[in-house]
Structure prediction request, 63 residues.
Amino acid sequence: MQISVEISSQMQQEAAMRGLPIHAFVELLLERGLESLLDRSSVASAVERIRALRKPVITGGAG
Prediction:
């Protein structure tokens, strides 16, 4: 798939400072963004599991 994007001069400078062609720099940014999104969902899932474990357990009558 191909897409066209407008790249700011600041992003072009950043790519040049890293010694990367602009297309490689943009691909790197996209990959990092995707990894970040995937990591957040796994963190959110872990937080939900922890919250579930912290809920008080109600047992049957003691008596």
